Structures are given as C-alpha cells and as structure tokens.
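User: My instructor asked us to take a sequence, write out its structure as tokens, and then describe one feature of it. I'm not sure where to start. Here is the sequence I was given:
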Amino acid sequence: MAFLSRPLLIIAAAFCLLAGAGAWYWLASSDDPLRNLDVRIGKQRLVIPAGYVHDRAQRRSGEFSELELAADARTFRPAPRAVKLTLETEDALQRIVFISMREQDGGLDPADRVSRLYARFLEASSWTHPGGLIVRRFEEKSPYQHEELYIAPPEGRLFTARCLRPRQPHDGLPNTCIAEIRMAGLDLRVRFSPAHLADWEQLTSGVRGMIQSQLR
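Assistant: Let's start with the prediction itself. The structure tokens for your sequence are:
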C-alpha cells in the first residue's frame, strides 16, 4: 500500500501505519479473557483466547475477513489494559504488538518486497541499526516518504519493517513500525514500537509461534 506531511502528510502517514483509529486503544476484556473463540479467516480455522482480540465487538466465534489481536510484546500473552496513546503515554506502545490477520491474497510476498517493490523508492545511503538491520530512507515524494526501511541482510527476506521517521518536535502521534508476514494461508500485519527493532528475531518468532499455536 502507498502511505503518504508536514503537517498533513506526516499525520496521514501516521494514520496509515497505525491502521486506523483502532490502534489508538487496546481494551480490557469485561468477559473471560481465556474463553476460547472458534474463528475462521478464509480457509484457516483458529482457536483464539478472547483476551487477544483487540476490538471488543469482535470477541465472538465466527467468520472474519480480518481480525486484529493485541499481545504483550515480550510474552505474547494477551495484552494488558492500557490507555489512549498520546505523547505522554507513547511508552505504553512498547508493551504491545498488534497483529492483523487476513486471508492470504495474490499480492507480492512480503519476503520479495525489498527487491521488487521498495528498492526503486530508496535513497542511496544506508546505515546499520542495533540488531544488525540495515536502514534505508525512502525518497521524498515517493509513496513512502517520511518512512525508513529496516532490512535484515542481505535482502530482507527474513524481516523487513517500515517505520515512521522520528519527528522533531514531536507532534503527539506515537512512532510506530509495520512488518508483514505470510504464513499458513494468512497475511499478517504486525504493528509495534521501534524499541523492538533490535529484537526483531524474537519479535518475528514470537508472532509466528503465537499464530501457529492458534491454528487448527
């Protein structure tokens, strides 16, 4: 997807990376968070503890075109209750990973996007990030302006994340990153704090393990 600045393009980019208003909150469950939901997304059946489901209205069994989960970023258990994300509460995002699940589509595999999609929009310069990731900045006036690309060498097939560039002065919107994973007939969009980039291997294996445990 193309993501859009100062101030409007930056705000638009942030909203795209946050994937809508739902990302501003994750909710405490008023019902039993361990109650299992029998869910179907495309051809895949999953059994998911209710506490993982981000939107309280979706805490039910049935078929979904898309379902978003919220997990603790370290344990990958259901996310704890938190508050609206603002400049003052941005550190709360570091505790949460949001995982949107959809049926796999016919689009380009996330493992191929660096070489076949993003490369043409990247600036020539690069630098190394803790965790061994290579960082490239997207060109101005590209579909991904105001974002940076974090790539696991050599070509990002194991991990790639697009992140909003840090903004000075801060505009009150939380910094966030998106990584995409394709597995078991599902396309996963993982939204997380840049604080976890150095631990990208743990993040990726945690997401994959959590989803795998729910497949039936």
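For the description part of your assignment, you could build on this observation: The first helix runs from residue 8 to 18. Try explaining in your own words what that tells you about the chain.
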